[in-house]
Design goal:
The protein is of the alpha/beta class. Helices cover 37% and strands 28% of the residues. The protein is built from 13 helices and 15 strands. A hairpin with a 2-residue loop joins strand 14 and strand 15. The structure holds adenosine-5'-diphosphate and magnesium ion. Adenosine-5'-diphosphate binds next to strand 2 and helix 1.
């Protein structure tokens, strides 16, 4: 339905969108997540022509909307947007906020527009507020009105930019429920949100934006449970990580231990966890010492706040070699001691490297 190709947008010298390519199909609910300042709002604003893209193309049902002859108000009606700050007209009643667009832009009769508005207010649970003014409503109610107003234009897709982030926590769920309801009814939506649990259960596709591109995309399962790329993983698990690079057998073990200690202190980990981590790394290095004259070794430590777990990855260059298969070497490298402090040990071959992933036991 919507096809976005190589979209780019800069503000002066700031390149916000570098190269965004994505297709949105009818009925899809897409969540857009990512650190702030990565261009999520700009992306929605470009789709809706509130910001003019510098390059690339956007087409709806095969029609290029960046063509200068495009009827911009019509595009905005088709891809209507809900903002963080509601943007209701405060001098108009709820009903007038809803009927204004359909009467002015769609040429609907007042009667039809009102009938339709009442139906929509019922959908968002606010039919009894039709004659109220925005100031008489709570934040959650205002946002539900804004969603109903958006729907009143019969959009093909609704773009929601952090629809709950200016709300008190108590009002977040009423707004999310309304969005869920629309999703269930088959409305096509693109939602920028920081509500990860919501994104996970409402959307059928998640776009992770970073560095001005869609850095990784996939099903909620793929993005939230098995993100493939480092930045996505860091964002999702709010992982804090540290990498130590070993390039020769003469590396400085004391410096390494000192860095691990500092890393653990920053994460505010229990002393026991820190001791086990240092023990684990030392034991593993016994094993890797055998290959360090010919291989490079990276030790990655990643702590996931969300899962409260410490992942230790040993990534070495060289021929495929699974430590787990090599029982003799493993005994030598203190397998029992390693097992005692880990929940799991996995081996895989990735990008021509041997990758051993160990999850430290919790304490
Ligand atoms: P996000 O929604 O992901 O937080 P935005 O799209 O709002 O990110 O902003 C991306 C970057 O573009 C930010 O650095 C922001 O300061 C900048 N930016 C956004 N709008 C404008 C503008 N109208 N003029 C100049 N810079 C802007
Ligand atoms: Mg934003």
């Amino acid at each position: 339905m919507i096809k976005i190709d190589h979209l780019s947008k800069s503000f002066g010298t700031l390149e916000v969108l570098k190269d965004v390519t994505v297709e949105i199909k009818a009925g899809e609910v897409i969540s857009i997540i990512g650190p702030s300042g990565t261009g999520k709002s700009t992306f929605l604003r470009c789709i809706n022509l509130l910001d003019r893209p510098d390059g690339g193309s956007i087409s709806i049902d095969g029609v290029d909307i960046l063509n200068p002859k495009t009827d911009v108000p019509k595009v905005r009606q088709k891809m209507n947007m809900v903002f963080q700050s509601f943007n209701l007209f405060s001098h108009l009643s709820v009903m007038d906020n809803l009927t204004l667009g359909p009467i002015k832009l769609l040429g609907m009769s007042k009667q039809d527009a009102e009938r339709k508005s009442i139906d929509l207010l019922k959908v968002v649970g606010l039919a009894e507020k039709a004659e109220s003014y925005p100031d008489e409503l709570s934040g959650g109610q205002k946002q539900r009105v804004a969603i109903a107003r958006c729907m009143a234009m019969d959009p093909k897709i609704i773009l929601l930019d952090e629809p709950t982030s200016s709300l008190d926590p108590t009002m977040v769920s009423e707004v999310l429920s309304v969005i869920r309801r629309l999703a269930k009814d088959g409305m096509t939506m693109a939602i920028v949100t920081h509500e990860m649990d919501f994104a996970r259960d409402v959307s059928n596709r998640v776009l992770y934006m970073d560095e001005g591109v869609i850095y990784e995309e996939g099903t909620p399962e793929q993005i939230f449970v098995h993100p493939q790329k480092e930045k996505t993983r860091t964002f999702i698990n709010r992982i804090r990580s540290f990498t130590y690079h070993i390039g020769s057998p003469d590396y400085d073990l004391y410096a390494l231990n000192a860095e691990i200690k500092t890393f653990c202190e920053k994460q505010i980990l229990p002393v026991k966890t820190r001791q086990n981590l240092i023990l684990l790394v030392e034991e593993m290095l016994q094993y890797f010492n055998l290959i360090l004259s010919t291989s490079l070794l990276d030790i990655h430590l990643a702590y996931s706040e969300k899962k409260e777990s410490m992942e230790v990855v040993f990534e070495s260059t060289g021929a495929a070699m699974n430590l787990l298969d090599n029982k003799q070497l493993l005994e030598k490298s203190g397998l029992t001691r390693i097992r005692n402090v880990t929940d799991s040990i996995d081996y895989c071959r990735l990008n021509n490297k041997n990758r051993l992933t160990l999850i430290l036991k919790k304490h």
